[in-house]
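Here we describe the complex-level prediction in full. Unlike the single-chain runs in Section 2.1, the two entities below were treated as one system.
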Amino acid sequence: MRLRKLNYRIILISLLLCSVGLIAIYSSSSPAPRLSSPMGWRNNLAIKQIIWILVSITMFFVSFVWGYQRFLDFAPLFYLLSLASLLILLMLGPVISGAQRWLHISGMNFQPSEFAKLSVILFLSRYFIARQDRISRVKTLAGASVFVGIYVFLIFQQPDLGSAIILIPLFLVMAIFCGMKRRYIIVLLLLGIAFSPLFWSLLREYQRQRLLVFLDPGRDPLGAGYTIVQSKIAIGSGGLFGKGWFKGSQSQFNFLPESHTDFIFALLCEEWGFLGAVLVLSLYFFLLKTILRTAVLTNDRGAKMLSIAIATFIFSHVFINIGMTLGILPVVGIPLPFISYGGSNLMVNMIALGIVASVKKER
Amino acid sequence: MRIHTLEKVFLGCLSLLVAFLWYHQIIRGSYFDRLSRNNRIRIVPLMPERGDILDRDGRKIATQIPSFALVVIPQELRNKELALQETARLLGDTSEDLELKYQKDFVAPFVPLTLCRDIPLEKVFIIEERKPVLEGIEIQISPRRFYPFGAVAANLIGYLNEIDARELEKLKPYGYRIKSLVGKTGIEKSFDIYLRGQIGGRQLEVDNRGNLIRILGEKKSVPGKSVELTINMEWQQRAQQLLDGRRGAILVMDIQDGQILVMESSPSFDPNLFIGGNIKEIRAVLDSPKAPLLNRAIKANFSPGSVFKLVTAIAGLETKLISPLTQFSCEGRLYSGKEEFRCWEEKGHGYQGIGEAIKHSCNVFFYKLGLELGPENMRYFAKLLGLEENSGIELKDEGKGLVPSTKWKHVTHREKWFAGDSLNLSIGQGFILVSPIQVLRLIAAIGNGGFLVKPYLVKGIGGMAVQEIKREYTGISQETLNVIRKGMWRVVNDADGTGNQAKIEGLDIAAKTATVQTGRAATHAWITGFLPYRNPKLAFVVFLEYGGRGGVEAADLCRLFFSGLKEDIPRYK
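The structure predicted for the assembly as a whole is:
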């Protein structure tokens, strides 16, 4: 009974966040009154996003009905499928701004790495639960590392730094909740630091530039540092109340790049101010709280693990994305859940929420 | 680890984000707000049209003419390479040059940048025909400074050039900016503030690529005011032709109110050269040993020679050391200690009064008078007549010159004043330095009854009369002046006067000549005076630097100049 109430809350908050996203995308895609500009694409993005939202709501109910247990049952299959799609993408995917992330299937662009993230969550949950009695063996940890490692390697090849980085907090939180010994986790972190030069060499030039710019923002204000400088100007100039809908000069006149996708939070801050930004952050917090509440209320280990993982998954996206627009984290290219323009991420998030919502049925 | 702890971690991290947002949006909000405004607002200047410079009869001495410039509007270029290649072909230039220029001058996509100035009309037509191919390239008509008279009066009018760093620092508060054309000398410099007008501007809103979105505001430029001079360009032109590139100057002034009718310094230069002329030609002007940019009319680098005898004479009469009847004898030489001072007439002039002495320009007479007067008396009257001070004419860089005194000699030469110094000063040789315009004032004061006038060049700005006539009575008595004037009349009109060659029937000229020893083989030649003798109207100075003898070259030049104006002069006023 209490869980049903939580489900209403989940759907309500996620739809509120989607609406915030629509408002921002609409503002971002409205062309400024330029003297000569094709007016055709006006509203296009917002309308597309509405279609994505409708599709995602459907997916929410599909996963809700299907139930988390089946997701866990099919986890290895999902894992293999997503590995396969990542491989296909690497072989024939088109290159968009230096990266192969999208797959065109009959007019729709899919971003397999988004789905792959979910499959890793499912797979890891199942893996850890199945081995909970021998969780503190090196073999278990090594196995989990290999499964995640393959995935990270493939995503890295695209290259999609953000989707790879997201897995770090996810892996840690899941390992901790399975009762893994602290020292293993510390060893793992040290290993990660030890191998970071190798990691650096795998990065592409533009990614290195972004990381360097993060360390020294004044390094290249018109090149790699441009986005972050413009993003900070957009956020800061919003002030307490913001400049108002369609009034954000940074985003309206395209000073702010990617203002409908990765940097949409900067647009929100510019047009709706500090108050708007805090409202959005509060919505996220209530969503996370609700998901974690589900984890508390269920007795099923799988459901508990999945809920915690999904909450961490959404939180990591929110934190890294906003940290990046504020210039306190490097620019790695991670969307803001439910708000950024784009179907794949939204669909994955809604499926994940559907999984959380389905928890009551299994009780 | 408990779920509750994880929730706290989430809350902590999100609060951290809120703290950063607070810092950015509230604490530093106004700073970022200013940055966002600067991002999108651009100001493009609108240049005003420069005012004309007119002569006394309204002839245009400096004006604006349309000039065709080839400009590119970067945001309208479809195919930059192709357009530049085609333009290069039409202009007979290389596309690399144009590309280079494009790179160098590019400011923003909406700011037109000039590729080529002063395109001849026939090429303008060709380019206009090719317009469909040359998208983003336009012929722009813009005003350009033009001096129809070329080198005539150029030293007086001045020239324009780009403002330099030092001037910019000084003039920035008055709206000058980098690359502003600014008057460098002459009237163009002195009256720049009126001529230039007020710069206007458009406030534009632009997007991230600098593309124009809308015009937020416009302040129209205010065209510059015209400056009307007292100069008579026909006379000026005549002076230039007669000087014919020799070093020197001809000045003519209204003897009563000080308006300058002619102020021609020679050699001259073509000020049009400095507007988009080629560097080599400009260099040639700047480096010429004859210093064409020097306005000799106001530079006080010259000894007055015998012209100064008039000052000595006035001093003698005014101090009552001599009367009009006093006579001194001239034996052709005078000894001061062991040093011999000669008269130019070796045989000597014998006994003569002051009138005769002026007529003959007898050195010995003035030596003797100068000795009696002493340096301080001569200096007093020299200063009374406007030497060693600025004439007050509206040109910068006027020279003050020098009238030596015992104290001055003591300070600068660490020597006492010798009697020989007095002898030299009495005939305007030695240390004394004057400018032609100072001589002009001095001679005008003699001609007009003792009034020292302030010479002026500008009678109106933008159609409004601006000059109040300034003249001060020197206190020199009419009796004295009558004696001097009579002597000057005899200089020209007596057959044995030194300036007899300047005599013109019908124009009653009175004058004084001077041939100045310069320490070199060549002498400076002066003739200065007024006309007509009765009821004088004009004062004049003819000066030739290293140009021969006052009574010959200068007097000839004077005669040639005024004889052509015989009909004009009575019509003046």
